[in-house]
Specification:
The complex is a heterodimer of chains A (327) and B (578). Chain A contains nine helices and 18 strands. By secondary structure, chain A is α+β, with helices and mostly antiparallel strands. In chain B, the strands form two sheets. Chain B has a two-stranded antiparallel ribbon with strand order 1-2. Chain B has a two-stranded antiparallel ribbon with strand order 3-4. Classes of the chains: A alpha+beta (327), B mainly alpha (578). At the A-B interface, helix 2, strand 6, helix 3 and helix 5 of A face helix 1, helix 20 and helix 21 of B.
């Protein structure tokens, strides 16, 4: 265990932001905190950084207690959502800032700055000032600045959410490959499930100050622990299980349509309400007597018509029995 | 990679951080207590001190006297009349500049601010040159206009307080939501109805705020009444007479406390308004575009010309009188008043410059430190700091000055060594204008996102390094503005320092008063012009420095023209208003 968070609690006034949160992060791992706004993910990141004081917590880094180590001495790199580059300093001096704080010699600083500029592909921008850079370039400089002092942990607070979609995708891939190459333990906060699934080794799904589930992207998708996680990561159809009151869930791509009831004994009849063609898939909304569901089928389906009567069925193995929040 | 610091090292470092911050807090709070709270406390204590212990005797005695009742009545009559006239004139003036399509808007605005940069008794001096017993008007037309007293003070104070009301009302009128005006027009409202139902309600907070500010300025003004008041006594001149004339500190203190009430009330109202007026404009507001309208524009232009002319004339006549052999008897050109061969000659001017430079340096450090501290402190301490920093705005200069003699001319006080030095004059000016400097500093610091603090901290910087490498360079334009603000105020102020000057530490503005008092009006005029020339130099230096700082922001390397130019983030000239 590299970074260990134990029993973290934090309230803002009377509003609980984090309720007894515990989590372990391995060395070199890329972890994403994912959740809706107000779930406590940013607060948790700021507590790890030392920028926010928890009401109670036990934080260990490599077995050592972080409680009495202030933010400036933790050597954690951080990249913020909004542009946090110092506007009065050039790109090179922004990157050198943390090195100067740590007493690197001028020569060592220059070498490291050149190295970092090359890593983020901004070698010819050393003399630029932040206001002369695009949003994507500014965040790459912020990344270089955070990584320059060889931080023990890299913290990313929604670093991509202020950028345009295209730039965001490019930079996302860049962050991932950089992180793998450097092997730096990284925690990123995001509210974008696609971002989290693409970039993270493990995702921590948070909601209302608690961790709902921790796991690899695949694991969260295939085995969601509860309805919140199932709904937040990908799409899922829910209906109540009359027998025990629990909730049954099926992913849209695990449902099939058939013209007659022969398809299986669990099939149910419904009417097609809407058909949405999305290119690689076709999304079909089916309404039955007591339930409605979304079915995703591969490619184009010119054989289906709105109003058509169909049978919907699912493989028994793909049906999830869920409990938990929202159930 | 194990952390580089040992456990003990980290603990020690944390303590140093905390120690560093504690030292800064004490360094900020202690002077505020010493130079604001203690003088006020001394004044309050003295006002309640009687031979038989503490009590209301001084107040009872004073309030019972017919003379005191008359003076209080005079003060309120002058302040109410001047406030009414000033707010109406300033509203019309600001409205003409903001809502009519007229020429020379920048010129009119500049003239309106002129009184800020003149010693506070120049208005009265100019009016006397024009309409006084020996003024040009009475001399030329043989008329018997007698302005000494009520109307003289009112007119002088209208001119004196005009820029303050103008600035507040300009701010109130500058932003408007065009959609409201278009809706009113579409619903069939005429110009008068639009003004009554949309414009006036939209600027009501500005009007209230301007009224209270002007009232306070007038009721606490000392320079104009002392020159043009004649036998018409007001509270500010009464303090001066009690203290300097009769050495009656206790009665001076009582008048001072009475004067504190309206000033404190004005500050409370001001704060209440700021809290209630923020949501006037929504994010989707459309800016108002001003279309030319022949008659309205003609009237607006005429009105602005008349007001600007009046303001400029008073200053101009002082400038002219300064180069006249003997106004109004011998109207030949002469530079003899610039020889300064009476009293201490030019020495007070140099003294004023030195004191103003000291005040600028101390003021910048003190107000920026306070504003920076207020950001990082916990809510309770930050509120205390904020309160103490704003408190001087509620203290009239005469009252603060009196508090200073009571405190620093007291042999029991170890700080008595400061009395009679230039330093105490500089300190008095810094704390007299501390609230305004603090607010400019706070505005400048708010431009610095807290993310900069946090990014800097995470990169390993301590408080001082963050301040030096990031915060100070970003707010450099504000530093220059605050410095010039304190310099200019210190050059022209009279009220607080009037009690603190000694023959060895005579100030220029006080010299003007003494010259006028001795009947050397032409020399008083020449002295005023010297003060205004220095103030003009300081303002020119401010503009040059701000332009230079903007240029330095641009990199020296050969890089393409920036795609997005940073908005000018200096508080600029607005910073050099009281």
């Amino acid at each position: 265990m590299y970074l260990s968070l134990r029993h973290i609690c934090k309230r803002f006034g009377t509003v609980p932001a984090l309720i007894d949160v515990s989590l372990d992060v391995d060395e070199g791992e890329f972890v994403c905190f994912l959740g809706p706004s107000g779930c406590g993910k940013t607060t948790l990141l700021r507590i790890i950084a030392g920028l926010e004081k928890p009401d109670s917590a036990h934080l260990l880094l490599g077995g050592r207690d972080l409680a009495r180590i202030p933010a400036r001495s933790r050597n954690f790199g951080i990249v913020f959502q909004s542009y946090s580059l110092f506007p009065n300093l050039s790109v090179a001096r922004n990157i050198a800032y943390g090195l100067a704080c740590r007493g690197w010699t001028a020569a060592a600083q220059r070498g490291r700055v050149d190295e970092m500029l090359a890593v983020v592909n901004l070698a010819d921008h050393a003399g630029y000032y932040p206001h002369q850079l695009s949003g994507g370039q500014q965040q790459r400089v912020a990344l270089a600045r955070a990584l320059a002092p060889r931080p023990q942990v890299l913290l990313l607070d929604e670093p991509l959410s202020a950028l345009d979609a295209k730039v965001r995708e490019d930079l996302r891939a860049e962050i991932k490959s950089l992180q793998s190459a450097l092997g730096v333990t990284t925690i990123m906060v995001t509210h974008d499930q696609h971002e989290a699934m693409e970039i993270a080794d493990r995702i921590v799904v948070m909601n209302r100050g608690v961790i709902e589930q921790v796991g690899a992207p695949r694991q969260l998708y295939d085995e969601p622990a509860n309805r919140f996680v199932a709904d937040f990561i990908g799409r899922m159809n829910f209906w109540s299980n009359g027998a025990d009151g629990s909730v049954l869930g099926v992913r849209p791509e695990h449902l099939h349509l058939a013209a007659d009831a022969d398809a299986g004994d669990r099939a149910w009849r419904g009417r097609i309400e809407r058909i949405v063609f999305l290119g690689s898939i076709t999304r079909v909304l089916v309404a039955g007597d007591d339930r409605r569901c979304t079915v995703e089928l591969g490619g184009s389906r010119p054989d289906l018509q709105v109003g058509q009567s169909v049978y919907v069925h699912a493989d028994a193995a793909a049906v999830h029995h869920l409990a938990g929040p929202g159930a | 990679m194990p952390p580089a610091l040992s456990r003990g090292g980290i603990g020690a470092r944390l303590d140093i951080d905390r120690l560093q911050q504690t030292i800064v807090v004490v360094a900020v709070l202690l002077p505020l207590l010493l130079f604001v709270v203690v003088p006020l406390w001394s004044l309050l204590r003295l006002s309640f001190e009687t031979p038989g212990g503490y009590g209301l005797d001084n107040y009872a005695r004073h309030f019972a006297s017919a003379k005191f009742g008359r003076i209080v009545g005079n003060s309120f009559a002058v302040a109410t009349t001047a406030t009414l006239i000033t707010v109406v004139l300033a509203y019309a003036f600001a409205y003409s500049l903001q809502r009519a399509a007229i020429r020379w808007r920048a010129g009119f605005a500049a003239v309106a601010l002129l009184p800020l940069y003149a010693p506070s008794l120049v208005q009265a001096l100019g009016i006397l040159f024009l309409f006084g017993r020996n003024g040009i008007v009475n001399r030329t037309f043989g008329s018997g206009i007698d302005l000494y007293g009520f109307w003289g003070i009112v007119i002088a104070d209208v001119l004196y307080s005009f820029p303050h009301a103008f600035l507040i009302l300009t701010a109130a009128l500058a932003h408007a939501d065009a959609r409201l005006y278009e809706s009113a027009r579409m619903l069939g409202a005429g110009s008068a109805r639009v003004f009554r139902t949309v414009t006036l309600p939209g600027t009501r907070y500005g009007v209230i705020s301007a009224a209270f500010v002007v009232f306070t300025i007038v009721i606490t003004d000392f320079g104009n009444p002392v020159v043009i008041g004649g036998d018409y006594g007001v509270l500010a001149t009464e303090i001066y007479n009690q203290v300097s004339g009769q050495g009656n500190m206790a009665l001076g203190a009582v008048v001072g406390v009475v004067l504190l009430v309206p000033a404190a009330l004005a500050v409370l109202v001001e704060r209440w308004i700021t809290r209630h007026s923020h949501a006037a404009l929504g994010e989707r507001s459309q800016p108002l575009s001003i279309e030319p309208e022949a008659w309205r524009d003609r009237i607006a232009f005429l009105f602005c010309s008349v007001v600007a002319l009046a303001i400029a004339a008073v200053v101009a006549v002082v400038a002219i009188a300064s180069v006249i052999t003997l106004w109004p008897y011998n109207m030949h050109f002469s530079l003899r008043h610039y020889r300064f061969d009476v009293q201490n000659g030019l020495a007070p001017l140099w003294t004023s410059i030195v004191v103003s430079l000291m005040a600028a340096a101390i003021g910048v450090v003190v107000t920026l430190a306070a504003a920076a501290m207020a950001r990082t402190l916990r809510p309770v301490s930050a509120q205390l700091l904020h309160f103490l920093s704003i408190l001087p705005a509620a203290v009239p200069g005469m009252v603060l000055g009196l508090g200073y003699i009571l405190t620093f001319n007291d042999p029991r006080n170890p700080l008595e060594v400061l009395y009679g030095t230039l330093l105490i004059l500089a300190i008095c000016n810094v704390y007299h204008y501390h609230a305004q400097g603090f607010l400019i500093a706070g505005t400048a610091l708010r431009q610095v996102s807290t993310v900069f603090d946090e990014a800097s901290t995470c990169l390993g910087a301590g408080f001082l390094r963050t301040l030096r490498s990031v915060l100070l360079p970003i707010i450099a334009p504000a530093i220059v503005s605050i410095g010039v603000f304190f310099f200019v105020r210190s050059m022209v102020t009279l009220s607080a320092v009037i009690f603190l000057v000694t023959p060895a530490t005579q100030l220029a503005a006080v010299s003007v008063l003494l010259l006028d008092d001795a009947g050397n009006q032409n020399q008083a005029a020449a002295y005023s012009i010297c003060i205004m020339a220095i103030v003009a130099l300081a303002l020119a230096a401010l503009h040059a420095t701000l332009a230079l700082l903007r240029r330095w922001r641009q990199p020296h390397d050969h890089v393409p023209v920036p795609a997005r130019v940073r908005a000018d983030d200096s508080p600029g000239m607005a910073g050099v208003s009281p």
